[in-house]
Amino acid sequence: MEFEFLLNDVLQQISLEKKEDFYVFSYGGKTYEADIQQISPHQISVLIDDVSFRIYTAKDKDSRYFLIDGLQFVVKEPTEQVEGFRKGEEITSEGTLLVKAPMPGKVIKVCVSEKAEVRKNQTLAIVEAMKMENEIKASVDGTIKKIHVSAGDLVDSEMPLIELEPS
Amino acid sequence: MEFEFLLNDVLQQISLEKKEDFYVFSYGGKTYEADIQQISPHQISVLIDDVSFRIYTAKDKDSRYFLIDGLQFVVKEPTEQVEGFRKGEEITSEGTLLVKAPMPGKVIKVCVSEKAEVRKNQTLAIVEAMKMENEIKASVDGTIKKIHVSAGDLVDSEMPLIELEPS
Amino acid sequence: MFKKILVANRGEIAVRIIKACQEMGISTVAVFSDADRLSLHVQIADEAIGIGPPPAVDSYLDMDRIIQAAQKTEVDAIHPGYGFLAENAAFARRCEKEKIVFIGPNSDALELVGDKVRSRQTLEKADIPIIPGMKGIVEDTSTIKAEAQKIGYPVMIKASAGGGGKGMRIVFDEKELTPALEAGMREAKSAFGDESVYLEKYIEESRHVEFQVLADNYGSVVHLFERECSIQRRHQKIVEETPSQALDPELRARMGETARKVMKVSGYNNAGTVEFLLDKEKKFYFLEVNARLQVEHPVTELTTGVDLVHQQIKIAAGEKLPFKQEDLDQNGHAIECRIYAEDPQNNFLPSSGKILYFKEPHGPGVRHDCGIYSGWDVPIYYDPILAKLIVWAENRETACQKMIKALDDYVILGVQTSIRFLKDLIGHPQFHKGETTTSFIQDHFADWTGEKGSEEKQKLVLLAAAFDSLHGTTSGKNFQMTKKEIYSPWLSLGKWRLGGK
Amino acid sequence: MFKKILVANRGEIAVRIIKACQEMGISTVAVFSDADRLSLHVQIADEAIGIGPPPAVDSYLDMDRIIQAAQKTEVDAIHPGYGFLAENAAFARRCEKEKIVFIGPNSDALELVGDKVRSRQTLEKADIPIIPGMKGIVEDTSTIKAEAQKIGYPVMIKASAGGGGKGMRIVFDEKELTPALEAGMREAKSAFGDESVYLEKYIEESRHVEFQVLADNYGSVVHLFERECSIQRRHQKIVEETPSQALDPELRARMGETARKVMKVSGYNNAGTVEFLLDKEKKFYFLEVNARLQVEHPVTELTTGVDLVHQQIKIAAGEKLPFKQEDLDQNGHAIECRIYAEDPQNNFLPSSGKILYFKEPHGPGVRHDCGIYSGWDVPIYYDPILAKLIVWAENRETACQKMIKALDDYVILGVQTSIRFLKDLIGHPQFHKGETTTSFIQDHFADWTGEKGSEEKQKLVLLAAAFDSLHGTTSGKNFQMTKKEIYSPWLSLGKWRLGGK
Description:
The complex is a heterotetramer, with 2 copies of chain A and 2 copies of chain C.
Chain A: E1 2-7, E2 10-18, E3 23-27, E4 30-40, E5 43-48, E6 51-59, E7 64-68, E8 71-76, E9 89-91, E10 97-100, E11 105-110, E12 117-118, E13 123-129, E14 132-137, E15 142-147, E16 154-155, E17 160-166
Antiparallel strand pairs in A: 1-2, 1-8, 2-3, 3-4, 4-5, 5-6, 6-7, 7-8, 9-10, 10-17, 11-13, 11-16, 12-15, 13-14, 15-17
Chain C: E1 4-7, H1 11-23, E2 27-32, H2 40-44, E3 47-50, H3 63-72, E4 77-79, H4 89-97, E5 101-102, H5 107-114, H6 116-125, H7 144-151, E6 155-159, E7 169-171, H8 177-192, E8 197-201, E9 207-215, E10 221-233, E11 236-242, H9 249-265, E12 270-278, E13 284-290, H10 297-304, H11 308-316, E14 333-340, E15 342-343, E16 349-350, E17 353-354, E18 357-359, E19 366-370, E20 377-378, E21 385-393, H12 396-408, E22 411-413, H13 419-426, H14 429-432, H15 440-445, H16 455-471
Parallel strand pairs in C: 1-2, 1-4, 2-3, 4-5
Antiparallel strand pairs in C: 6-7, 6-8, 9-10, 9-12, 10-11, 11-14, 12-13, 14-21, 15-16, 17-20, 18-22, 19-21
């Protein structure tokens, strides 16, 4: 059976079939045999050519997480739209840059006003979470188009903070 | 809602109702309030009058297991027949004593023959499990009625070994 | 000895203290905000009392509620842990008034060392070396520029009331001064309820070396050697070790004696830490006293064999110190890594949410002080520390190897953590050489992005995802599959790899 | 140093050794029988090779298969762990022939000390004190009664080839002799593939005190002090501690020197243990050499700071011992409890099956060497040891408290274990006093049935069961409910209890 996944936002294909007491999988034009065993709902044990791997896994509503040798990978469905922008930002349909809260927290201060010009790396707002202040900075030069929050607001992750017109 | 359980083979009753954000339960003629929270599929946290308890739980096909402060309890359904005899023995309908394997293992030796007379604590058979020999002894004086196994047999827990006619 | 102790804290340190009490046969009372009903410290205590809404000012910082909980449960003593009310002299006084033993220093000493500015003055008089800085707190923001000028840039803004990096800012030139002051004061206010800050000289390329001290109620003061805590990000320690690679026996003895003197001059009792900066010429300066159990106390415990929480409780109960300075010795090497819920690939931003799966490392010489479990929601209201991983080995080399292995074995899925960053840090050649200063992360990890994963690992992840989808073990959704037929697996069996792992 | 090591064992000890290799940067190969594909040692090793069907004679005891696995994976060395092939001189010779380093003593020394009868003869000549007993193995069961008579009852039947209680029987009078001999020989055959047994005097009210020894390939021999292992059931150690309460510094030094002499006389290298019996007059007798890593090695590691597995590997790789006798010291107190899958309420019968839920204890000073996990099936084919719980503290008193707390925190559901028994044992007044002899369990726990659970606990269990049924969280069945209406809960709210927990 063939599967397509988004691994770290890159589309990848793999095929997997169960034989008697082992599995056969193909990836990148090569085919391998693997002994795959479910150890617990959160762990599988894989032996390929006598090499042993432990893979931990968990899922939430959007993603499946896999961890090998301490390194975490995120796997998503291929149907999901790929966003090409860094976490906390999004280009709107009008071409403005929407700066979003990178984590849940409380807006301590909005450092700019509408129509103000800002330079790259200028602090736009300060959001506090877990007792630490985090400065939200402009990633480009531009003009403030809209401010969505004010000091004291509680914001969730990905909530719009400020809209910026790049210059 | 009222529940009946067999706790350590004794029938017990308890009633439990969910209120807003806590529970009310009655046992032994008294009623209590409890804050009960599911911590994981295997653990609940209970606060009653500010006293905190951790209870671990698991189940297999016959029983539910609960552990409090390191002590394990077995809860069964009340419909199940209560056996009044010690583990590894059963009185048959004909009144003979059926000696059963106390654990899975391998019969190393049968030390008695049919019709032989045995005394209390005399060794009837030797069963090996986990590299240790375990002597199965007569719990009463009697006569061997039937031998169900021979040396080399693999036996499961509760499998009949020897039938004894108490004298 | 006390019969019952209330632990006025949460997270890993509350768990640590409760376990210590249980080992000593002392009953325990946990307190919890509404955000912490399901936290580990609530589950393991004998009793647990709700003390209000999630924000710390309404719960863990609310003296009235803590005292009420203590009175309701009739405890003999309160252990404040670190943070929250631990260094609050008013709270210590309140406990004294209510006849509840405060497990920490007496309120006079706490007030003195807690006032960073006044303690600097006192200690300067006693010939303790002090970093150049202001004689008082910042009172008038208009004259502050002159003060900074006098000290000379770079200067450090520090909260008068606190530690843990809260309210701290380095300022390199005058135009950064005002915004840094504002931010520092806000953070100090939010963390300690006191916005007082002061300025001192920022010493570059320095090491942070601190001495653990124990003082009983009868004038005996011993130090339990040093901890080096130079590895910091955002002025917050993240890796601590002992012994320090920068100290020789002579300097260690001299700094240790200075630490004891600081405590004697301050009239201090119970456990405390004297922090020093050590500059590149091995000159040391008193920084401040942390008047409480430190986050990094386990490295001292592992190398001296002394349980600091047991000692805190015994001292508070009026017992004498069971050892003299000459009885104490350092054995082997210990390193601690703090595991934070934060994203090192994203400027160390805090990461909250549900811990989908958690599995802690184990093994000889591995200690894990922890306040979390699989399925727990990391709340946004408190410090993002999840746990502390501490290793002990005969020597530093083996301790580093053990730490790297333990970090590799650490599983947290669902929230971002500092684990991979810590692994790269401990494995860094400069760390291996012991070349650690307070700017270590800035110098070597400013552009750190972390490993992306080899092709082999990616292949395994895809295999695991496919296995998972095939059996529906974790996914509830159907993944899209193409209909192309798989070619016969028997024709071209690939060899997994030629070398070892 | 070696690049790759094959660990020819399973369970907790295979896990322990694999982790030690990983810390040293050495790749590892696990071997597994068909019953062990899902075992922990297979998951954590770099490579894993199946070596046959579940019975040990067809897998873990099959030299050919082990050697084939070693050749296939091109390892430099084999670590045998304990049990299985660990003390098999033929296997050590085979490794030597195949140019694979056997991590253990040289085959000549192994052969000598492994032959309990020949080593008794050799050591007697070297003036080592020996327990009175047979000069040779039991060859002729007809003359055995005369031998037993000569030694004097009670006598002990012991396997010539082994340890760990396998094949051991105490015989108090002549009529027990023949069946005990038969059983002992069968058990010896099954455990070691050699049915040879011999007789020695059984010394009553004695303590089992052993000394850990390390010897490099260049003639240096040090001891790492004693372990007291008197607490045994079915001749199997279940609790071990160090230091022993029976030794003063003079006796400790004398026994330690004797242990070193035993090893020197035997031409021994690598790690080994010299076992002694200590009678009530504090006279000690050589028992035997255990020519391998011991189950109870962690208590020595925690009190000396020496990692014995690291040292074994280094010695086997040709390194010299990094310390002399005078560099070694004992710090604090360590106790180990072996966690067995067995039912202490049912004559310690082995208990196999699925571990439905498992949660190990944690905390400062708590070490847990373990080969199991939630969901694992305990196979019937091997030794029932699941894990070892080891604690360290400054003194014995605190170590006991820590152990009791850790046992309380230990969760295993689904299989019976010795945990509760161990808790009562550590808490026994005679254990507290250090009054431990090899008949301790027989003397104090012959009629042990264990706590049945207070009314409070039973009430909580019912509450948990009801909660569980109400929410259907773990049960798939509907439990029978009566229709009687619950009376209003608001009328008579009970107080949970008046005192503390």
